[in-house]
Automatic annotation (TrEMBL):
It is a multi-pass membrane protein. Residues 220-273 form the DUF2179 domain. InterPro entries: DUF2179, N-reg_PII/ATP_PRibTrfase_C, UPF0750_membrane, YitT. It is found in: Cell membrane. It comes from Pediococcus pentosaceus CGMCC 7049. This is YitT family protein. GO terms for cellular component: plasma membrane. Keywords: Cell membrane, Membrane, Transmembrane, Transmembrane helix. PANTHER family: UPF0750 MEMBRANE PROTEIN YITE, UPF0750 MEMBRANE PROTEIN YITT-RELATED. The chain crosses the membrane at residues 12-31, 51-72, 84-101, 107-126, 146-165, 171-189.
Amino acid sequence: MKEKGFKLIMQFAVMLVALEVLAISINMFYAPHNVAAGGATGISILLEDALGWNRALIVFVINIAMLLASYFTLGKETTARITVGSLLLPICMAITPSISLVSDRTLAVIVGGALYALGVALLYQIDASSGGTTVPPLILKKYFNFKPSVSLLVIDTMVCVMNIFSSGIEAFILALFSSVITLLVMNYIETGIDRKKSVYIMSSHLAEVEEIISESLDQSYTSLDVQGGFSGDNKRMLMLVVENSEYHRIIGRIREIDPQAFILTTNVAEVHGGQY
């Protein structure tokens, strides 16, 4: 029971940190330069610039509307999952100072995009959400089987386009640029930054290659039984996961043994488990 309570406290703490990071990215990087990069927070920047309305209040109203839509269309479970984040984000935005930390707009959207990605990725880690425009894609998926990623992209793109009428074409380009940065940073955060390479090897001198790998290079590997698609011959293939820094050294040693060896290399985001 204590362990479960501690886990809930830690999840809530992570959520608070994530939401505050989102608030900092909006209040200190996006909003001071009038760049709306999508979502409810982007809409709030546009409306504040056009009508002078309070950003945090706009996000609060949008999130409440989305919670009601979620309750009547997606059910209680989904609504409960996004309620806390939806209510706390506008609070974080209201208490976070609205200041410009950098004067250059390009630098602002780079840093803002990276921070926004960090905040969203942290929320994903604990299966939470800040609500807002993440709700309509879920509704469209349920009733019309639209892909949520496509629906969210369309919504965010529409928000980005509105920058043209609010702050000009430069703000629109910066908003798109920021969205790309957010996507790339989120991808690296979610799948880990400790990237490796997976190497598949077939050779007529496979026994010698195995010896070099296991003894000289002190590298573990997996032996796979395969069949040639053209020849139909049964063969063996080696599969090993190597650090990026070790990749060229290992490939060089294999090429010394068999210059004609078949080597296929792919990037690996994460590796879990031990040696077998």
